[in-house]
Write a structure and sequence with these properties.
seven-stranded antiparallel β-sheet, 165 residues, 7 strands, alpha+beta
Length: 165
């Protein structure tokens, strides 16, 4: 992981404060962001145009719920369905990923670690499948989830440990 973090650190150093160092990073899928496309496609397969509309509506509600929970925590990730989450000594940061290659290309949001009461690794559900999910709770009581591919579970654990929340 250290080599990977070193490469990421070089790409994002312009987004870090002089007193910060990137300690850990992992690609995440914010809760609710990919359900819209999946449910719409599944509905189209199952029920044609009516299924597509129904599936899209269900997906939109999941997306809106995820957007609302992140807004309550002060995070705006736009329309991004996958982002890079990183932690420094002071902040949790989220970067947009390049479509080709998945490299960080622009800081989307950050939240001071002092505003995060807890960060734990739980399990989220996506289309009936469980996957690791970083669950963050702010000091104001807002909660948001960042889903992680099972293969990146250890990186998620490293991010949580580095945050010290």
């Amino acid at each position: 992981m250290a080599d990977k973090v070193d490469r990421i650190r070089d790409r994002v150093k312009g987004d870090l404060r002089p007193d910060e160092n990137l300690l850990a990073a992992v690609k995440v899928t914010p809760r609710g962001t990919i359900e819209q496309g999946i449910l719409g496609a599944a509905g189209a397969v199952a029920g044609g145009m009516v299924g597509l509309v129904t599936g899209s509506k269900l997906g939109e509600s999941k997306r809106e719920a995820g957007d609302q929970e992140r807004a309550a925590a002060g995070l705006d990730l736009g329309d991004e369905s996958q982002v890079l989450a990183g932690v420094t000594e002071h902040r949790l940061l989220m970067w947009k990923l390049a479509k080709l290659g998945g490299k960080p290309k622009g800081l989307l949001a950050s939240i001071d670690l002092s505003a995060i009461a807890s960060m734990t690794l739980g399990e989220g559900k996506l289309m009936g499948q469980t996957m690791p999910e970083i669950v963050c709770t702010t000091t104001d009581g807002a909660e948001f989830g960042l889903r992680v591919a099972k293969i990146h579970r250890s990186r998620a654990q490293e991010l949580i440990a580095a945050a010290g929340c």
